[in-house]
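--- STAGE predict ---
source: upstream dedup step, 1 unique chain passed
mode: sequence only
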Amino acid sequence: MGVFLFLTIDQGTTSSRSLLFDEKLNVIDVYQKEFKQIFLKESWVEHNPDEILETVVSCCEKILNSKYSKKILSVGITNQRETIVAWDKKTGKPFHNAIVWQDKRTSKFCENLKKDGLEEIINKKTGLLLDPYFSATKIAWILDNIDGLRKKAESGNVCIGTIDSWLIWKLTKGKVFATDVTNASRTSLFNIKDMQWDIDLLKIFNIPSKCLPDVKACDDYYGDTEILSRSIKITGVIGDQQSSSIGQFCFNEGELKSTYGTGCFVLANTGKKLIYSNKNLLTTISSKINNKVTYALEGSIFMAGGLMNWMQSSLQIFKNISETSEIASSVNPDSGVTIVPAFSGLGAPYWSSNSKAAIYGLTQDTGRNELIHASLQAISLQTYDLLEAFRQDFENNNISLSNYLSIDGGMIENDWFVKNLADITQFDVCKAYTKESTALGASIVSAIGIGYFKGFDSIKSLTNKNDKLESTIEEKLRKKIIENWHRAVKKTIEMAD
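--- STAGE serialize ---
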């Protein structure tokens, strides 16, 4: 049997990437291209949709111009999820920059909906909380702030969708306007029980259904690429965190993963059970593959790797991220410095969108080493809060939660952080099968969609897990660190109220 290959588009918050996987799930080739982040006002975050498309096409063409091109069977797409684009159905021209998932311009809109008592119905239908993080209020903002756009949308001449929809539409030359169930489930407009756009939600957010894409299964056929140098079937589309969960082989109920990119996202498989959190976690669709819907609980941390990028670019206290592991290990673990990285508010389990970042416990002895140590530890502590929320929700629903935490993302290269994560959370922490697990997940879905794999059972035999790290920290010290953290978070939230 010859080598079969699967091309994956991994469209992220700061860059676009194309990756090539073989039938044994090995990475064969990778290309990456960054694009500009646009900050027009405080808490506004935008991207240029045309620049996103250009970076995607450029990366794909690098692979298609290689010796592997003719062996590629299919294309999979994974993407930053809640980010939205609005474009002209006839010309394909965007009406506005993409509004990014981190953007907080609709905070007031969300607060007004909460005052109107609408959060409960939104949560029941979507599994989501009322927060500017999700797409619906971003869509409403675009419709209300571009002259004539709402009228045009009501007449059916506007397309509005998440980044996957924008890419699919462009790659197929406007022949396919579609999204998958995982991206749809992050809009606050999709009923995760009925598996369709919800009439009541469309009315609440005042969004015409004509401007929204068709919703398909993750492993469905999404058309052929027509703007690339080779026509290839698109047979896998899935949001980035759901894709990472598949790429880390969290196929069974109770298995969970954590991804450390710009933000941090923990996803725990709940199987066929659609459960609601008492701890401000999100209920979401994990996948729809082979006509089977799998659900999950999810918790989001807005600043993980983004915190370290801020340390490097704004404070300039280190030159290379690789330095930080050794620096952190040199600091007294009981230094008392605590950073609450609420640059874009606080995510789960707090969901305090108005909170601002803060540093506590500074003394004259505090220097760059202590700040670096506190930054890395803040990411572990945020993860701890998430995992405790997961434990309680799973117990309340009589589901067994694994104590095995699979991790991926750029930050897992930091050995001190990985060990600290095990120490603080008390989970057995294991690095993912590949650091490219997000892209791998989309490749697996695409391979299932094209018929190469029958399902997840045929994949398990190809994988093996890395060694795990266990907690070795003194319990008294661990409790003190966590108590300091919770006091700091409480104070930060109080200051925002």
